[in-house]
Specification:
The structure holds two protein chains of two kinds.
Chain A lengths: L1 H19 L4 H11 L2 H12 L4 H25 L4 H9 L3 H8 L6 H27 L9 H34 L7 H6 L4 H5 L2
Helix pairs in contact in A: 1-2, 1-3, 1-7, 1-8, 2-7, 3-4, 4-6, 6-7
Chain B lengths: L1 H21 L8 H24 E2 L2 E2 L3 H14 L4 H17 L1
Antiparallel strand pairs in B: 1-2
């Protein structure tokens, strides 16, 4: 339940951010029901809202989405499932459902995965609608909602900073250097290069 | 154009999720795969923070958004809930703009 409430609030802020970036209520809701992975959704609206190209936005969103593939590999080993069921499970394979499943005992891994995944799916979509519809009727700039998007990204990054702050610092610096030199949206992609030193060092 | 971006992202993100469910578990035995999948989001999120706050098109600026981010960071440091972080960041930026 606490998970549902927390995710609901996050969904509310996504709906508002999408609206502030110029997306319609229908587009915001389509993103939450079809894409359904928060960081990628925030990244796409962030790049589009900053005037970046759709291609740069999609590329950033997809790079962020690769971690869900790793989650699925881990989950597939823990939760036996028919191929048809796997196709359904794929849509709710996200940070939250993976976290609940891997912290449950093995017999409860499946229950934890489905209950967390479906709870988050329902809350995320309802609150996206509420946030987008609410923000569409107010002055998002005067309310500072564009500034809140930066804080939302920081909130997603925060739990990873302790172990991976050098990568975060490298990514931030690369992006800042790239802002005046490349079209909007591209600096975020260039920041992915900050991972390279960790890949070649063995 | 926005619709194309939304649908492409949806198809791609679903593709990643589904491919993992059907991939061999031995894939994660390769440290390069695990490191890349774990650390790429960290670099991208850090970049999204600074771009969202300091970029105005292709120029770097310092404006009310910085105050919002700083207020949000204090909330995160104090371990306050996500909603509080968002609301305080927005309110701080709004207050600066209203001055």
């Amino acid at each position: 339940m606490a998970l549902g409430v927390a995710v609901g609030m996050y969904g509310l802020s996504f709906g508002a951010a999408a609206s502030a970036a110029g997306l319609s209520v229908l587009q915001a809701c389509a993103m939450s029901s079809l894409i359904f992975t928060g960081a990628s959704q925030f990244a796409l609206v962030g790049v589009l809202g900053a005037g970046g190209s759709a291609a740069a936005g999609v590329a950033t969103a997809l790079l962020l989405g690769t971690r869900n593939a790793m989650y699925a590999v881990i989950l597939a080993e823990r939760i036996p499932m028919s191929p048809q069921r796997k196709l359904l499970a794929a849509q709710v394979t996200i940070d939250e459902s993976t976290a609940v499943s891997v912290t449950s005992s093995k017999p409860l891994a499946g229950v934890g995965f489905w209950s967390a995944g479906l709870t988050v799916y329902v809350m995320w979509n309802l609150m996206t609608l509420a946030g987008a519809a609410g923000a569409a009727s107010v002055d998002t700039h005067a309310l500072g909602l564009d500034a809140a998007v930066g804080a939302a990204f920081l909130g997603l990054l925060w739990p990873r900073l302790r172990e991976a702050w050098p990568v975060a610092l490298g990514g931030a610096l690369l992006a800042l250097i790239a802002v005046p030199l490349t079209p909007a949206g591209v600096p975020v992609l260039i920041a992915a290069l900050a991972v390279l030193p960790r890949l070649v060092r063995r | 154009m926005i619709w194309t971006a939304v649908l492409l992202t949806a198809a791609g993100c679903y593709g990643f999720k589904a491919s993992g469910w059907f991939a061999p578990a031995s894939l994660l035995d390769r440290p390069v795969v695990r490191t890349a999948a774990t650390l790429t989001p960290v670099a991208l999120l850090a970049a999204l923070v600074v771009v969202q706050v300091f970029a105005a098109g292709t120029t770097l600026t310092v404006d009310a958004r910085v105050v919002g981010l700083a207020a949000g960071a204090v909330c995160l440091w104090r371990r306050l809930p996500f909603l509080v972080v968002i609301v305080v960041a927005a309110a701080a930026a709004a207050a600066v703009r209203a001055l």
